[in-house]
Structures are given as C-alpha cells and as structure tokens.
Specification:
There is one protein chain. By secondary structure, this protein is an all-alpha fold. Helix content is 76%, strand content 1%. It folds into 2 domains: 158 residues, Up-down Bundle (Ferritin), CATH 1.20.1260.10; 160 residues, no CATH class. It has a two-stranded parallel ribbon with strand order 1-2.
C-alpha cells in the first residue's frame, strides 16, 4: 500500500515513536517559521515581532517536552520523519517564503498553523484504536490548543491598542504605496489620456470597429508603457513603496482597464448607441477615480471631483471637437 501513496506512510501505520518524531519535527519547523516572521517584521512592526518571538519560544518548549517524552519511552534516537513523509498529514504551502506578505496575511497564517495542527491531532485521536496512542494524540491536540491560548496572551501583552493602531496604520500605508497609488495613477492615465484619441477617431470616422481597434491599441500600449515605467522608476528600497513588480502590475493593469472601459462599447455596431454608452462609462470611471482619491488618499471629495471629472470632461470635449472638425 505504501507505493500507492507515493512512498509515504499512512498516519495509521505510524508507531508511537514515529508519531512523536513527527510531532517533534513539526514543532521545530513551526518555531523556525515564527522566528522568520519576527525577523521580517521587527523593523516595521516591532510589537507583532515580539509576539512571534514568544510563539517561537513556546514551540521550542513543546519540542523539548516531546523529546524528553520520547527519551523516557523509546530512547535517545528520534525517528527522522516529517510532514511530507506521511500521507494525509496536513501540508502547508510555503507562503512564508514570500518577501512581501502583508501584515494581516502573516497574522492569519500563524493562526491557521495553530488551528490546523490542533484539528489534525483531534481527528487523529478519534481514529486511533490503541489507548496509549489515543492519549498521545490527545495530549498533542491539547498542546496545540495551549499554543493558541499562549499566542493570545502574548498578543495582549505586546499588541497594546496604541501599538496595534500604529502597526495597522503602517500596513495601510504600505498597501496604499504599493497598490493603490500606482493603480490610481494608472487608472487616471488610462481613463483620461485615451479619451481624446478614442473619441476623436469615433467622430472622425463614425466607424465603431475602427474606434474599437484604436481604443484597444491605445489602452494596451498605455498599460505596457505605464507598467514598465512604474517598475523601472523606483526599486522601493529607499522610498519604502514596496515591490516594483507589484507596483508595475498595478499601474499597467489599471491603465489598460481605464482605457478599455470606454473602448469596449464600440463593439456595438450602432455608432450612436456605442458612443452614448461609452460617454456614460467615462463619467462612471471619473467618478470612481474621485471616490478612490477620497477613500484612500484623503483628498476632499469636491477637490477630487473638480480635478478628475472636470478635467476628464474637458479632454473628452476636446476629443469630440477634434474628431468632428
């Protein structure tokens, strides 16, 4: 049966010594993950880093207790067995290897790690037939539950309301710098800069298909240009604006979306129907930009409206006049 599981052992085939070895290696891995989180967060989120420091210490303590238990029952040699060696054992994607995980995602990963381990041990304890094995698995489940309680206590000790507010503010600021700001710049550029060529073509040719082709070409070209420009302009190391690839993707995609929004209606064969819908889409785009500026950039709504809607309306009018002439 082992070959059916790709060379891995089933959990039900593990001896109690192997179960302890598996628990020991899992605790060691989790402690390393928490230490990695702590080091990554220490400069920007010191309070959360202290929580992960404490959680890694808890994992080390449980690992030592498991090793002592193994020595007393089975001797000095602990079986070398890890999660990937056991069929059906919970697996974790190595998302913690990412260099740019947001703060909330890291906190969620840690919570999921504890709950996942606890649930697995509880389910395994119910399936175990041997009384000693059932007790062992129950003890491991209790240990994981204690981890969660300890984590909550550590969070209460280090994550004071003031510290939490400061860290959440930094996380929100990082999200805005990495995603919102370049995305907003791209959306504004794509929505406004393509207005004149698209509507000039529309009113000059009265041909929806030609207008659609010009609009797609202008939107995609602008998206590629904005994406590469944003990615190449700043590596994010000194400015703290985050990954240039993420910023480039945000800027490029939103630029293309901004232009395609009022190009796609020209797939409709009737010129005036397509143009009416395109103009409606333009004003929806401009209002969306004004809302994003107000929501994330704290720009007063009247000022955002004046800058974006009025400015976009002027560009739209210029395109229509040029095409009509």
């Amino acid at each position: 049966m082992r070959s059916f599981f790709g060379g891995r052992k089933r959990f039900t085939d593990l001896s109690e010594s192997e179960i302890l070895g598996l628990a020991i290696s899992s605790e060691e891995d989790d402690a390393q993950i928490y230490r990695g989180f702590a080091e990554r967060l220490r400069s920007d989120y010191p309070a959360t880093a202290k929580v992960f420091d404490g959680m890694s210490v808890e994992e080390d303590d449980h690992r030592r207790r498991l090793i002592d238990l193994h020595k007393s029952r089975f001797g000095e040699t602990v079986p070398l067995i890890r999660r990937e060696h056991v069929s059906g054992f919970y697996a974790r994607r190595p998302v913690w290897l990412s260099e740019h995980l947001p703060l909330e995602r890291i906190r969620q990963i840690a919570e999921d790690m504890e709950i996942q381990a606890q649930n697995f041990y509880l389910a395994a304890a119910k399936r175990a037939k041997d009384a000693d094995t059932r007790k062992l698995l129950g003890d491991l489940a209790a240990a994981e539950a204690a981890h969660e309680t300890s984590a909550a206590a550590l969070a209460e000790a280090h994550l004071t309301p003031q510290a939490l507010d400061e860290e959440n503010f930094r996380a929100k600021r990082q999200f805005i710098l990495t995603w919102v700001q370049p995305g907003l710049a791209g959306l504004m550029d794509g929505s406004v800069s393509t207005l004149a060529p698209i509507f000039a073509t529309a009113f000059a040719t009265k041909d929806p298909w030609t207008t659609f082709l010009v609009g797609v070409a202008a939107s995609i070209g602008a998206g590629i240009s904005m994406g590469f420009t944003e990615a190449a302009s700043d590596d994010g190391q000194l400015s703290g604006r985050g990954s240039p690839i993420k910023r480039g993707v945000a800027s490029g995609v939103m630029t293309a979306v901004g232009g395609l929004g009022h190009a796609l209606p020209y797939l409709i064969p009737d010129f005036w129907t397509a143009t009416t819908i395109a103009i409606i889409v333009v004003f929806l785009e401009l209002w969306a930009i004004a809302w994003i500026q107000n929501r994330f950039m704290d720009t007063p709504f009247w000022r955002a409206t004046l800058q974006v809607v009025v400015g976009g309306g002027l560009v739209l009018g210029a395109g229509i006049l040029i095409g009509s002439g």
